[in-house]
Amino acid sequence: MNTSRAKALGAIIGIPVLVIAFTVAWAKNPPDLAHLFSAPTVCEKPLTYAIGSIDGRFGVGVVTLQEAVTAAEKLWENGTGFDLLSRDDNASLKINLVFDERQIKTIEEARFKAKLDQEHTLYQGLVAQYDTLVAVQEKRLDEYNASGALYDKRLTNYNTQVTHWNSAGGAPEKVYNEFAKERSDLERLQQELENERQELNQQNANINALTDKINMYASTFNKSVDSYNTTFTEEQFEQGQYTGTMINVFQFDDLSDLEIVLAHEFGHAFGIDHLSNPTAIMYYLMEKQDTERPELTAEDVAALRGVCRMENSTSRND
Ligand SMILES: [Zn+2]
């Protein structure tokens, strides 16, 4: 009994061990399975997408989103030579614009930047005004000093002549009349110089007031810059995501930015993972890509050829 019981027991234990061994064997060979049931690659059959929901607070309509989607599509298709994407309003892959604090911050930052630009433009306008006023004032001051020196010379000469004729007991009528005229000319000149001196002083006061104003604007601007730098610090966050059935975009600065985010998420939808080249569309971070003239890098192209199971996946030409 003992033995047979022992034999029976041995048989019962043996079954789960076999089952476990069988499971492990399956898990170890997924490539064979994948190959047997593989769907056509995106290079063989374009991926279909539909425009999903767009939060109105983005200020972007369906037409504009479609333009950005088409640009992202062209980026991949022109870069690889494959027809990779096609719009189908019944497609299961939806493209959504999802509004949250990320885009709120983007909008706030854009507003703040516009305010900073405005403050800086005002400041620069005042500085330009100051430069013009100072240049005019310096020229006018030079002229005033030259006229003053000339006046002093004439006055000295007049006084010398008067002293001379006084010590000689008086001047003849003709000379006396000349002196009278010179004296009246000198008095007129002195009045003109005095008027100019007052005007110059007034203008100096104006320039000083303008300097105060400029300093005040500079101080306001600098405070705004400090405030901007504290409020909008560098931080990393998710701009977009591919969930398997959705491409959700959470944040973009402008339409060319949106285009690259979409191109990146399309890349994931094609089955491409992140690449290590920082300029690649499929780099995890949006930073070094050329947003003005976006292009696939050789790594992006090779990665697509990889998911399309093409040989020589590092070459663009086939
Ligand atoms: Zn990514």
TrEMBL record:
The keyword Phosphoprotein does not apply. Residues 176-213 form a coiled coil. Residues 235-304 form the Peptidase M10 metallopeptidase domain. GO terms for molecular function: metalloendopeptidase activity; zinc ion binding. This is Peptidase M10 metallopeptidase domain-containing protein. The keyword Zinc applies. SUPFAM superfamilies: Metalloproteases ('zincins'), catalytic domain. Gene3D superfamilies: Collagenase (Catalytic Domain). The lineage of its organism: Bacteria, Candidatus Nomuraibacteriota. InterPro entries: MetalloPept_cat_dom_sf, Pept_M10_metallopeptidase, Pept_M10A. One of its GO terms (biological process) is proteolysis. GO terms for cellular component: extracellular matrix. Keywords: Coiled coil, Hydrolase, Metal-binding, Protease, Zinc.
